[in-house]
Input
Amino acid sequence: MVPDPIENVPEHQKFVKIFGWQWGIWGSFFIFLAFLIMAPWKGPPLTMQWEITGITGTIGLCLAGYEIWRRRNRTVLVKDGEQIAVYRKGRLDLIVAPSEIIIVKAGLQIILQVGVGLGAFAVIFTVIGVMEFFRNMQGNIVDSLLIMLPGLTCGASLVSAAWTRFACAHLRVPIKNRRLMVKETVLLPISRMQELF
Output
């Protein structure tokens, strides 16, 4: 019988949900973009600048806040003999048979579509931004950073997506008493899958 709450479970028995960094990457993008929008102006900022900065900064803070929240509320799986205990928000949610957990893989077509798009944007914006930087070294580098920023963000997003696809197993785990979203996708390191199953 597994103990409740999760703090009473020994660390070596826990299979803690891991994440990519998509929400944090894009949150950082919007926060940095908000900063750059205000940076190049020498006079008092225009009303429109404040509005755009406020919107982009708010989006960035919301995305970054969600990244922090989800990492503090990870789902944890615990092997309990022939069954698997599912902990959510630190409390025992339900106990399931291994057969109730489905292992899924993203289709190759989706991976290529997302990967090619992110990769192309990463290369195009980064190269143009670097060229603009070297062409305008004596002037304002903010324009170069504004061009480079989406490229670097897309590159980081691509790395995160590739890591979650190739280094993590994607499990669909049941959620207790749910009608709409009845399963949660839980990512675990592929290296620990044999221990769990």
Remarks:
- The radius of gyration is 22 Å.
- The longest strand covers residues 168-174.
